[in-house]
Design a protein that fits this description.
The chain has two helices and 21 strands. The protein has helices spanning about 20-50, 320-330, and strands spanning about 55-60, 65-75, 80-85, 90-95, 100-105, 110-115, 135-145, 150-155, 165-170, 175-180, 190-200, 220, 230, 240, 250-255, 265-270, 275-285, 295-300, 300-310, 310-315, 330-335. The longest helix has about 35 residues, at about 20-50. Belongs to the RseB family.
Length: about 325
């Protein structure tokens, strides 16, 4: 992994009007039902994203920018996906079971990452009900996108330490025709919307081969299985985290070398099933390249860096700034 920017009571009343009591009672009984229906739609969405064959173009708004992308996806056991930028510098991203390959025409670079970062759609856990303590799930009505009828699914965080989602799901296939990543207050941070979409019977190999690349491109390999040393769950560490958001559990812990310097960095991944944060700790002295100090932001991604006891700590994730700041300031060396 590369070094990060060194680069979420009603007042008591003796009498309640009968109509209000009936309304409140209906709301109490309808919430679990609405959540269950929302789970059904999200389960269908996850299956559609993985299993269906499709191609189309979509616009992606993030960090004050608007990009147009072409996507072709082959579903099933041999799932494979190719993204091609239709605006700005020519770029391609190919995802398969081995990882992700990014081809950048402006820098003549091919970057290979075996860690399988997320694609353009939110990755949802299989057991959505486990998230009920940290998010509210509901249906938000109907809409039309691409002249297709869609069902809106709303995912709202129960605190300010994680983001929420809105999904406009195609009624026929449950593919996300539009989606938005939003703050706890509902402000959009990132949005995606298809401008053209076609569900296919099959996708040929030729449609998934990258068009960019060649002998003048330089290949960079990110950390892979051979360069990562997984830390056993029972193994100790020199570091502890005195604060984590409710529901965030350890998802991964390993040591690996930095791609350029080869310096060893200890890496933790924490998440609640939707949101994730990564923590990197490495040795740091006056000869080290300057590291991130304080908060940094790029769209929905926030990062926090600090030095501590001869080490540099970086916390980064698609979570609010307060989350990475509190987590970074809560890192302590074990006694």
């Amino acid at each position: 992994m590369s070094r990060r920017p060194r680069v979420p009571s009603f007042p008591a009343a003796s009498r309640i009007p009968r109509w209000l009591a009936l309304l409140l009672t209906a709301a109490l009984f309808s919430q679990p039902l609405a959540a269950g229906e929302a789970f059904d739609w999200l389960d269908r969405m996850s299956a559609a994203i993985h299993d269906l064959n499709y191609r189309g173009t979509f616009v992606y708004q993030h960090n004050g920018k608007l990009e147009a992308m072409y996507i072709v996806h082959r579903g099933g056991e041999d799932s494979r996906q190719r993204l091609f930028a239709l605006s700005g510098a020519a770029r391609e991203v190919v995802r398969d079971q081995e990882g992700v390959t990014c081809i950048l025409s402006d820098s003549k670079a091919v970057m290979v990452d075996r860690s399988l970062p997320r694609g353009p759609f939110a990755a949802l856990p299989r057991d959505l009900e486990q998230l009920n303590r940290y998010y509210r799930f509901s249906l938000g009505g109907t809409d039309r996108v691409l002249e297709r009828h869609s069902r809106v699914v709303v995912v709202e965080p129960r605190d300010d330490y994680r983001y929420g989602y809105r999904f406009w799901l195609d009624r026929e296939h449950a593919l996300p025709l539009r989606s938005a990543l939003v703050t706890a207050a509902g402000r959009p941070l990132e949005q995606m919307m298809f401008t053209q979409l076609e569900v296919l019977e099959q996708v040929d190999d030729a449609a998934l081969r990258p068009e960019l690349g060649g002998e003048h491109f330089t290949r960079f390999e990110g950390p892979g299985p051979d360069t990562e040393e997984e830390v056993p769950a029972a193994a100790g560490s020199d570091w502890e985290f005195t604060w984590l958001p409710a529901g965030f559990e350890l998802r991964g812990h390993n040591w690996h070398g930095m791609p350029v310097s080869g310096q060893r960095v200890e890496h933790w991944v924490y998440g609640d099933g939707l949101a994730t944060v990564s923590v990197y700790i490495e040795t740091y002295d006056e000869t080290s390249p300057p590291g991130l100090q304080g908060l940094s932001n790029m769209g929905a991604v926030n990062a926090m860096g600090r030095t501590l006891d001869g080490h540099h700590v970086t916390v980064v994730g698609e979570v609010p700034a307060e989350t990475v700041e509190r987590l970074a300031m809560g890192v302590r060396r074990n006694d």
